[in-house]
Specification:
Helix 5 packs across helix 7 and helix 6 runs antiparallel to helix 7. The protein is mainly α. It is built from 8 helices and no strands.
């Protein structure tokens, strides 16, 4: 058997699935798991409050830049359009992380493991900011909390 014929072809679900926030969160490690990994690599635990504040700042900036329609259905649709590229980019990032992790497991090279962790950590941080920005954009002008489905994302994100 040659090397080429022995190669495993992978078609993981994250390459095919629609990139919803729920799907993105399912692909990322929990907060406690990420904190443990950071400590393993000699880094301080991530500051969840800082990530959330950064995401809120992004959401507030977006809120000032776009004009959302008065109709709730149109408003939700417009938000979806605005966030679709960010979710797709996030999905690509997560897919890259899965590929790097798979490679690290195959090679058992510590440098590959460190590179996979670094990519996973960046993707995790970006997703946390993106979710906070989404929640901020979903708030109405009176700062009413977003719908229960959005709060579910927050609950899952907090591990």
């Amino acid at each position: 058997m040659t090397q080429a014929s022995a190669r495993l072809l992978r078609f993981p679900a994250e390459r095919c699935a629609a990139p919803t926030f729920d799907h993105l969160l399912a692909q990322l490690p929990a907060n406690t798991s990420m904190a443990d990994e950071c400590l393993h690599y000699g880094l301080p635990a991530p500051d969840l409050n800082a990530l959330r504040e950064q995401g809120i700042a992004i959401g507030m900036k977006m809120r000032r830049q776009i004009v959302l329609p008065a109709d709730a259905g149109e408003e939700a649709s417009k938000r979806e359009i605005w966030f679709a590229p960010a979710r797709v980019t996030m999905q690509r990032s997560i897919t890259r992380v899965h590929d790097m992790t798979w490679r690290a497991e195959q090679t058992r090279n510590p440098q590959d493991h460190r590179a996979a962790f670094s990519a996973r950590y960046r993707a995790w941080q970006t997703c946390k900011r993106l979710i906070a920005a989404w929640e901020t954009l979903c708030l109405d002008e009176e700062n009413v909390r977003p719908s229960a489905s959005i709060l579910t994302f927050q609950k899952k994100a907090s591990g």
